[in-house]
Amino acid sequence: MSERRIDAVAKATGAIKYTADVVLEGMAYAAVKRSDYPSALIESIDTSVAEKMEGVLGVFTAKDLPVATNLYGRRVFDVPILASDRVRRVGDPIVAVVGASREIAEAAAELIEVDYKELPVVATAREAIVPGAPLVHEKPWEYLGAVATPQSGSNIQSVDAHGSREAAEAALRNAEHIVDETYTTPGDHQGYLEPQSCVVDYKSDGTLTVWATNKSPYRLREVLAKVFSLNAQKIEIMPTILGGDFGGKGAPGDAPLCTALSILMNRPIKMTLRYGDDLLSTDGRHASEIRVRLGIDGEGKLLGGIVEALLDGGAYAGFKPVPTVNLHGIVDAAIAYRVPEFFVESKIVYTNNQPKGHMRAPGSPQAAFAFESALDELGRRSGIGPIKIREINLLSEGDVNPYGDTWIEYRGKEALALAISQPNDLPIPKGWLYGEGVAVYARSMAAVPKTSLRLRRGQGGNIIAEVPIPENGAGGQTVVREMLRSGLGLNADQIEVKQVSTSSLPTDAGVGGSRVSLGVTVAVANAIELWKQLPGDQDIVEITTAEGSDAPSGAYSVQLARVAVDPATGQLKVLEIISAVDVAEIVNEKAHQMQIDGGTVMGFGFAVMEDLLEDEGRVWALTMGDFKIPNAADIPKLTTVLLRGGHGVGPNNIKAVGELANCPTGAAVANAVADATGARLRKLPIKAEAIYWAMKEGKSK
User: Fold this and answer.
1) SS3 category, 356
2) In a 3-state reduction of DSSP, which class is residue 571?
3) What is the pLDDT of residue 105?
């Protein structure tokens, strides 16, 4: 097996061309004047100074846009291309400037003066649902794709619920031991290396060519066609490699604005965000406030549970792709356990904060932190213990999970046993407190996504595989090569895998949801069979797979965190994170391990450092110095142990791993801190100050 990634050498040598590297003849550059206020009416706009600046080619407001609608979105069309009469967040684009260079456009945008009439700010999700709260949107149910209704309540983006609240309440009344606590997490950002960028070239014959940092090119094509009343078949989204994604590059971004400017200017337009603008204006992870109530009988068996999640969706719902406009991970909160009566409600609301979208396993890190912390507390308070209470309640063969499904296997108990059995030879700083914490995360396998693929003969017997999926850093294209190499008995250097434009293949669902490897393996397996039967006078195979699913199946990730805490200062050292991962077959060992390590590091950052510092509608972490993500010096010892031999899905018998390892880390670390200090931290990220005061005051926070 060839372990080297297809894109490895080109990335290491700098040969890879990203969207920001695209240069077209006659191209101009765009920048925007953004809102300085989280909630305000636009009273007047003065662009006169900017228009006179040398090198400025055009200055445009919302009234100039050549659009069928000034609104766009992945599912809900509530995001303005340019704000017209009102701004709903700091960072809303108001005026677009086109310049001969990026620097000229940015400098001119700074010269634009906007007068505002400030409006009341909805600063938190809790404030948003208070009766009589200011409305972020007057009638959000009128937006195309909206799921909110006039009866939903004020500032509602979406509500998703499962189970019977009444039955769960009744079960809790019969419980021997109960926990009822609330857990909070802040707004977050995906932290990808490549900021968002796009290049758009519109021609007078109605053709539109787009390069964009976007992982869902076919959906982007649909959105642009709708916004500009264009023929989708005349829009071509070009193949681009992504410098990281983690859920943050699925929305149209600035492509609608650049399209409008290209139409107006009759020339190619490029816009690339500075990282401060990326942190300010793109779609990060939802801040959450999650109340968890769990009850057990005298033997430690869960009788019932209620999870009520309130999530800050920010100023717009348009960055989420699913029809419910909700986050699947919240609703799946207790999927690993036997909970006879379980009710979960996930409510996402509008605020005047940064709009939120998807970030690696959307909703799951927040839900896992809350549920696994609550279960840990219940185990400790009842005297049963945090390990035993999980062993008692994890699902076994034939069990039905809280959502009515029976998986073909449950391996949570085995993964838990594997995690806690790992040896410990860590040096503990003298005088520091030591603790261990465990957390379990389970995830159902995604349905096979709709996709397409083409194989054709190259020179010298080589095979060229044309795929619609962008390479977002996870190695999906390498999976294609490895399958073809194995299935057709070729050497790796005899196979070329290349992404092609939306005009070259019929369809794809986009990268995300831990479904790329599954969709790719199904498509490639079908293509291999057709290729083997191909007559000698033909040299092309093209297939399209329909959406579908195998028998209900899932995977587990159990993490054990080992920590040390300085009792004098509250300083926290995460010494080791052990990840016991439930797997079936593995297509590429190195890529698989990279996904586990990368996910664990993201979970570690979520646990102890990442915070956009949103306050009164403003993001204060606007540099990568203020918005701290883990670097090599921060990372604890990472240990992976694989629970092999599982029943996977698809022709290669695989289990998705990309969104497994980042979800339980926050709870594992918090549980370890509680074990070390006796102080329970219910708010992420866990900082030394919070630990210090919790220990000093002898109470949990």
Assistant:
1) strand
2) coil
3) 98
* Three-state SS sequence of 575-643: EEEEEEEECCECCCHHHHHHHHHHHHHHHHHHHHCCCCCEECCEECCCCCCCCCCCCCCCCCEEEEEEE
Q: CA–CA distance from 354 to each of 250, 313, 621, 653 (Å)?
A: 16, 8, 12, 40
* Beta strand residue intervals within 172-257, DSSP E: 177-185, 197-202, 208-212, 235-237
For residue 577, how far is the Cα from the chain centroid?
22
**Contact criterion met (CB below 8 Å) for 381 and 525:** no
Q: Show the tokens assigned to 80.
A: 């303005």
- The identity of residue 107, as a single letter, is A
Cα gap 399→408, rounded to integer Å: 10
Kindly report the backbone phi and psi dihedral angles of residue 290, in degrees, each rounded to the nearest multiple of 5, phi listed first. -125, 115
pTM above 0.85, yes or no: yes
Residue corresponding to tokens 């503990």: 428
Mind listing the pLDDT tens digit for each residue in 508-540? 988 887 777 778 888 899 999 999 998 877 788
What's the rounded Cα separation, in Å, for the pair 654 and 527?
A: 18
Which stretches of 332-411 are DSSP H helices?
A: 364-382, 386-393
Sign of CA dihedral 12, 18, 23, 24: positive
How many whole angstroms from its chain centre is CA 561?
23
Cα separation, 422 vs 403, in Å, equals 32
Question: How far is residue 378 from each of residues 179, 388, 680, measured CA to CA in Å?
Answer: 6, 11, 12
Distance, CA of 366 to CA of 339 (rounded, Å): 20
Low-confidence ranges of the chain (pLDDT < 50): 1
Q: How far apart are CA 339 and CA 360, in angstroms?
A: 26
Residues 6+ apart with CB under 8 A from 387: 379, 416, 420, 438
| Distance from C-alpha of 1 to C-alpha of 5, rounded to nearest angstrom | 11
Dist. CA 1–CA 21, nearest whole Å: 33
Q: Name every residue whose Cβ is closer than 8 Å to that of residue 391 and which is 6 or more positions away in sequence.
A: 413, 416
- Considering just the CA atoms, what is the radius of gyration of the chain in Å? 26
pLDDT of the residue at 5 = 84
What are the chain's domains?
A: 21-119+196-272 (3.90.1170.50), 184-188+283-445+551-697 (3.30.365.10), 447-545 (3.30.365.10)
